[in-house]
Amino acid sequence: MRIKSLHNVKFKVPDLVQTEAFAQDFGLLTVECNEQHLIMRTGGGDAFAYVAEKADKASFVGLAFEVDSKDDLESAISEHGASPIQALSTPGGGIGVTLTDPNGFKIDLVYGIERVAAEPAYGQLVMNAPGQYTREERFEPKRPMAPAKLFRLGHVGLFIPSFGQSLPWYKDVLGLIPSDVYHIPGQPQAQIVGFCRLDRGEELVDHHVIALMQSQTGEAACHHISFEAQDFEAQFMTHRYLESKEYELVWGVGRHPHGSHIFDVWRDPDRNRFETFSDTDRLKASDGSRVHNIAEVEMDVWSSEPPDRYFE
Ligand SMILES: [Fe+2]
């Protein structure tokens, strides 16, 4: 079975109106909002990328990956005990099956969801640099102070009680490949964090689609969801925009050492972390895996320390 891409995430939230207001300010576009659920998309062409169901208490339900064919759904049933194939009632139709990971997260595999027309992007930045003065005009990006243009759901970070149980499941069932793995100082066998990418053979994919992080408390939860923004300037402008709306900053703007992507993380009204990213490394299956002592990993190459609230 080959996973094609990450497609959507699903949460339960107590106040759909409040969640929608934040998500719109963050840059998501409303597809449907009624008494029962909120469905939002990016501007990149996926029919939807974020689902919130009304519930008394906020929680993370799970996520969905798109697969290449109906055969992949059938092998998920025969090889991994996925639920029977069902027609999806979400925008764009399609079919899907559901797996449950070792943490109780619902992992849907979906196929055949119709895409929608993509929103236009801003013009690409042309940067002048020493010796490479390629811009021929004045710098006039003309980007408004407004919610970000987001292009796709790129990755999800998960807090898990047991890295040793979760990593094999994501490798064996979904075929993910660890790109960078962190272990406890002095104990190379005691791995606690893993950034895993899709296996698309020689096709380049994001450095990670799933980040598995062993939680200190034994909880299973979503750590963050991350959407691709156009570039660093879009992220800095979104940062300012969210600041002006008095939302709670978690951490950013910074650049991670593994994956190289520029990140900026904010909290929604239920304290879920929403991240923008840009300029991620892209790897192929043959690029292998690396293992690091977590004590030697600087989490932001621009040298800001992650605040406690990044992990709480
Ligand atoms: Fe991230």
Name of the CATH class: Alpha Beta
- Spatial ordering of strands, largest sheet: 15-16-17-14-9-13-11-10-19
The CATH topology turns out to be 2,3-Dihydroxybiphenyl 1,2-Dioxygenase, domain 1
Low-confidence stretches: none
Find the structural class using helix and strand composition: mainly beta
The main β sheet shows up as:
9 strands, mixed
The helix tally amounts to 4
Helix content: 10-25%
Second-tier CATH architecture: Roll
Care to describe what's here?
With 312 residues, the chain is mainly β. The chain has a single domain, classed as 2,3-Dihydroxybiphenyl 1,2-Dioxygenase, domain 1 (Roll). It has four helices and 19 strands. β10 and β11 form a beta hairpin. 14% of the residues lie in helices and 39% in strands. Bound molecules: fe (ii) ion. The site of fe (ii) ion has 7 residues, from β9, β14 and β17.
What are the defining features of this structure?
312 residues; mainly beta; 2,3-Dihydroxybiphenyl 1,2-Dioxygenase, domain 1; eight-stranded mixed beta sheet; binds fe (ii) ion
Short description:
By secondary structure, the chain is mainly beta. The two termini are 35 Å apart.
List the topology elements.
Elements: E1 3-13, H1 16-26, E2 29-33, E3 37-41, E4 50-54, E5 59-67, H2 70-80, E6 86-87, E7 95-100, E8 106-111, E9 150-160, H3 163-172, E10 177-184, E11 187-197, E12 205-206, E13 210-214, E14 221-229, H4 232-244, E15 248-255, E16 262-267, E17 273-278, E18 282-283, E19 290-293
Parallel strand pairs: 1-4, 5-8, 9-13, 10-19, 14-17
Antiparallel strand pairs: 1-5, 2-3, 3-4, 6-7, 7-8, 9-14, 10-11, 11-13, 12-18, 15-16, 16-17
The structure holds fe (ii) ion.
Residues 155, 157, 224, 226, 263, 275, 277 line the site of fe (ii) ion.
